[in-house]
Specification:
heterodimer, A: mainly alpha, 0% strand, globular, B: D-Maltodextrin-Binding Protein, domain 2, D-Maltodextrin-Binding Protein, domain 2, 3 domains, 12 strands, 19% strand
């Protein structure tokens, strides 16, 4: 069976991009400042906080999905929002997965910025705000890397997306959940075709982020 | 990297996101009314809902969101008020659900058949079994003797509930079944299609709904398996619709849920269910209370079987179809042999 590029596939692909993109942006908006704060400031318990962040890299998507399901189920504490089985719920579940990654990678990147750069910045007598910006610019490659890895986790994730999205046709069906569906139905060829679409989309986005990261591509 | 290049690329990235976001919202045209239905994967995968729902949606100018999960999860969603209506096939669990006050208006709407599927060579001799119970006994005895295997869904699905029911009817209660020797009794915890694939791989038996079996045959994934026992009334797979309790959950779209129940149990709705033919078989037999067919039988039923009652019109009265159900089932088995 050849892969038919139909309305459905395009819509499903766009929804995948939308959900993963929003989760990455949200997760970066929270994780990068948080990581910079932890990375640049000295305070008690910093080591413990770093360890907790790094161990959260392995946070299982299915648990994130279950947590969001419980919170936003009508019987749950936030049920009145009525966002279960919507792309918003999927974005929240995946944002939870992105935050530890972006935070942790930012901590590491900021720490790796050469001490001399930090000293120079200080000796030039710049304001703290300027010096933070300078360090962040030096850590740029790492920060984009944080977003890339976050996006990679979201676009490839299926457990949370299925659980809180419900795989509703035309509404919460994304590439990974439709691949699950087609596989379950025994349409392996079609599922494989969709898998290629998923890989292509992920590679295209990563290529873009790589452009953003540095100019030397090859 | 130059500042200007960075700005251009950042704008491009943001642009793509904005466009995809806008496209998603444009493509998801907001309908005035929405009905959220939870159902089981086996029913969803049969394609019946994709076939019947457009008729309902256009008649009531609404959109039905279908969430297909395991039966256990379906009922749990109903309990938690996350859906408006359920379409399920676990009679005992449904009764508990309704008597617990979580749902109302439980109405039977249709059935299809479970079949015992196994290796064509039939090492357990189930083709000669006098009943589904007998077939299970033979599988058990041959399994414990090391001659064959059985793959169980073991996942809280309606199919698994049915399997447990048959085991218990021959004296193996749930605890005993769960403790069956894993050398022959494999507890998969997977969907029906995956379990059939495992049977193909392991030369094992399983209990399957016929729709999933036919769909797997259709994509040529299980060439070594065939239906070895079918047609026993113990293998009937009854589907019901249940409305989620709208007193408990005021946000429930109870009007539309009731509209759906009324429609699918009406003659018009039942006729649409009956007219669904896939893989060369009529997959579901409508049986809502008081339903009397007004349409001609289509699909697998060979009207020549009913020549004596059709008076040459090709239309078979429902009463006759019910009476000759077993003959119809027999003809389905015959059709599969040729496939």
């Amino acid at each position: 069976m050849a892969l038919e590029i139909s309305y459905d596939v395009i819509q499903v692909t766009l929804l995948s991009l939308y959900v993963s993109g929003c989760a990455t942006i949200l997760g970066s908006a929270i994780g990068i400042p948080l990581g910079a704060l932890v990375g640049l400031k000295e305070f008690g318990g910093k080591g413990l906080l770093k360890t907790i962040t790094y161990t959260m890299y392995g946070f299982p998507p299915v648990v994130s999905g279950l947590a969001i399901y419980y919170l936003f189920s009508r019987a749950g504490p936030l049920g009145s929002f009525g966002i279960l089985f919507t792309p918003t719920a999927m974005i929240l579940a995946e944002t939870l997965l992105v935050i530890p990654l972006t935070t942790g990678i930012t901590i590491a990147s900021v720490a790796e910025v050469d001490r001399s750069v930090k000293e120079t910045v200080k000796s030039l007598g710049t304001t703290p705000r300027q010096s933070v910006l300078t360090v962040m610019r030096e850590a740029w490659v790492g920060l984009v890397m944080a977003a890339m890895i976050g996006f990679g986790r979201c676009i490839a994730e299926v457990g949370a997306a299925y659980m809180v999205g419900g795989n509703i046709k035309g509404e919460t069906r994304v590439l990974t959940t439709v691949i699950m569906l087609e596989t379950r139905q025994g349409h392996f060829d079609y599922a494989l075709g969709l898998g290629l679409v998923l890989i292509a989309v992920a590679m295209a986005v990563f290529f873009f982020l790589r452009l953003l990261q540095e100019k030397e591509l090859l | 990297m130059k500042q200007s290049q960075m700005v251009i690329i950042a704008v491009a990235v943001v642009g793509i996101l904005v466009v995809s976001t806008a496209a998603v919202f444009v493509l998801m045209k907001e309908e005035p009314k929405k009905l959220r239905m939870a159902t089981t994967t086996s029913l969803y995968d049969s394609g019946l809902l994709d076939y019947i729902l457009p008729t309902f949606e256009s008649k009531y100018n609404c959109k039905v969101d279908v969430i297909a999960v395991g039966s256990g999860q379906t009922l749990e969603m109903g309990k938690r008020g996350d859906v408006d209506v359920l379409m399920v096939h676990s009679p005992a669990a449904e009764q508990t659900f309704v008597s617990g006050g979580y749902g109302t208006n439980r109405t039977q709407i249709m059935y299809n058949w479970f079949v015992i599927v196994g290796p064509d060579s039939d090492p357990a001799g189930t083709k000669n079994a006098t009943s589904a119970k007998d077939a299970f006994q033979r599988i058990h005895d041959n399994g414990t003797a090391g001659h064959t295997k059985f793959v169980s869904r073991a996942d809280g699905s309606g199919t698994y509930t049915k399997e447990l029911g048959i085991w218990s009817s021959i004296g193996y209660n749930n605890t005993t079944v769960a403790a069956f020797n894993t050398n022959w009794y494999k507890q998969a915890g997977q969907g029906m299609g995956a379990v059939l694939d495992m049977c193909e791989d392991m030369n094992a038996y399983t209990l399957s709904d016929d729709a999933t079996y036919y769909s797997r045959v259709d994509v040529a994934l299980i060439p070594r398996l065939s239906i070895t026992k079918q047609g026993d009334s113990a293998l009937k797979n009854q589907y019901s619709v249940i409305l989620v309790n709208s007193t408990m959950w005021p946000h429930i779209n109870k009007t539309l849920a009731k509209d759906f129940l009324d429609w699918i149990s009406s003659t018009a709705g039942q006729d649409v269910v009956k007219s669904y033919v896939r893989y060369g078989h009529q997959l579901f037999v409508p049986n809502a209370p008081g339903y009397i067919s007004t349409t001609a039988i289509t699909g697998f039923v060979d009207t020549r079987l009913f020549e004596d009652v059709t008076n040459g019109t090709g239309e078979v009265p429902e009463a006759v179809l019910v009476a000759k159900d077993m003959r119809a089932v027999a003809s389905r088995g015959g059709a599969m042999d040729g496939a």
